[in-house]
Amino acid sequence: MPSLRGSSFGDVSLLHLATYTPGGLPLQVPEAVSNSEQLMQYLHAWHPVYPPGTYRTYSNISIGVLGLITAKSMGTDFPALLEQRLLPALEMRNTYINVPAQKKTRYAQGYAQDGTPVRLTPGVLWAEAYGIKTTAADMLRFLAANMGLVKSSPSLQRAMTDTHTGYFQTAAMTQDLVWEQLPYPVVLQSLLAASSPSMIFEPQPVSAMQPAQKPRQDVWINKTGSTNGFGAYVAFVPQKRLAIVILANKSYPIAARVTAAFGILQAVDQGGQ
Predict the structure, then answer these.
(1) Which residues pair with 257 in a beta bridge?
(2) 16 contacts 55 by C-beta, under 8 angstroms
(3) Are 147 and 158 within 8 A, CB to CB?
């Protein structure tokens, strides 16, 4: 991204983007930023609030720009890279950034908290940060691939496994590359603390793991996600070959999603099924 050379953002590492630790990016793209040119101007003028690698501030800008850079480094745009290369390699045949016309009848209707019908509104970095539409079956396949339970190319499997590396420790969880993890067995209160509103909306001090924690099997790896009208939660435990996907067409509280997932996986684990 040549336009960012010489700026504070230009010095940010990809690792810091992938772990939300570049120094204090806001949660969302500012409302005044409405196109790519304005985004580059905003990033060029940005200055870190904290030294990079000292605080985790959850940010769609962080993962959105990571996706943007990834696609540029591979000579295409993010939707094309995802839909034409990655998703076919994973055999995720019902996952899209842009839902095709012939699939629109399967596109779930979302509902806001007041019951108003809503759908995703595209914006700057929307495709890279929160624009994917999928099915529970496709997302379960993705989690199975992360656990090495479906056949993938060696390079793709290595890339997925590498995202389970722990780089920063917060008070509540270990920050991997976008994924978040806790040691397994895990208790519900620990999961709720790791997914609490403060982890999303407030800066969290972190300590770098030196050396980085290699991918482990005895961990609970998870990620929440929400847009206006939709809510999601995914989690998997490689050691147990357990995984769960919760997709809802309303943004239910994260605590409710985590509690439901924990109860289901605990019952399956204890039942040996």
Answers:
(1) none
(2) no
(3) no
